[in-house]
Amino acid sequence: MLANVSNEISLPRNMTLTTQSTTTQRPQEAYPKAQSNDNAKTATLQPRAPVHMPVSKLFTIHGRTAICTGVTGGIGIELCVALAEAGADIVSIQLPRDPAGPRLQKMITGLGRSFKSFECDIADSSSLRACFIDIWAAGVQPAILLNAAGVNQRGAMEDLTDDDIDKVFAINLKASFVTCQEFAKKDVQCVGIRIF
User: Fold this and answer.
1) 39-47 long-range contacts, Cβ below 8 Å, gap at least 24?
2) Does any domain span residue 61?
C-alpha cells in the first residue's frame, strides 16, 4: 500500500513558496535539456522580511570576558557589539590613539558591559606579546578570544611591494597566531574557552 504523499514542504522561516506557470518559450540553449511540459508549474522561493532577534535571545555569555582584536571598524565592531549584547565584557587590543576607540567604548558601556582597551601595533609581535603581559597584569580573566583584525592591500597583485605583502601576512596571519598563542599560555586549562 502506498503512503499518502503531501504536497507541503518545510521551508526556513524567512522563505515563502510561490508557484507560477511556465508557458513562456525559452531561448534555444547550446546544450538542450530534457523535454519538459510547457504547462508545468515551477516553484520559486521568495524571501520574507528578516526576523530580527536580539543576540541575547540566541545565546548568552553573561559574565564572561572577551579579548578582541580589530574591533574598532568593519565587521569586527559588529562582532564585538554582538558579544557585548550576549553579556560579555570586552577587552579591546587596538592601535595607539585609535580614533574609533572612544566610540566603541561608548557602544559597549551603553549595553551595560565593562570595557578596557590596551594599545599596541599587532603587526609587531613583540608589541603584541608585551600587550598580553599588560592584560594579565591587569587581572583580566578571559573566556573568549575574537581575532577580527585584518588588512587588505588594494591594487593589482603584480603591483604589490614586499612591504605590502609583509604587512598583510603580519596582521592577517602572524598576529592571529601570536594572539592565540598568548591567550593559550594563560588559559589552556580553562573549560568553555571560545576562540574566533
Assistant:
1) 43/17, 43/18, 43/19, 44/17, 44/18, 44/19, 44/20, 45/11, 45/15, 45/16, 45/17, 46/15, 46/16, 46/17, 46/18, 47/14, 47/15, 47/16
2) yes
Close Cβ partners of 21 (under 8 Å, ≥ 6 residues apart): 39, 41
CATH at 164: 3.40.50.720
CA 176, CA 146: separation in Å to the nearest integer?
9
On the question of pLDDT at 56 being above 60, the answer is yes
List, for residues 108-161, the tens digit of each pLDDT value. 999 999 999 999 999 999 999 999 999 999 999 999 999 999 999 888 989 999
CB 63 within 8 A of CB 143: no
3-class secondary structure, 25: coil
d(CA 85, CA 67): 15
Number of domains composing the chain: 1
> How far apart, in Å, do the first and last CA atoms of the chain sit?
52
> What is the 3 state secondary structure string of 69-114?
ECCCCHHHHHHHHHHHHCCCEEEEEECCCCCCHHHHHHHHHHCCCC
Is residue 8, in this structure, part of any structural domain at all? Answer: no
Q: Would strands 15-21 and 41-47 be described as parallel, antiparallel, or unpaired?
A: antiparallel
* Residue 65 domain boundaries: 55-195
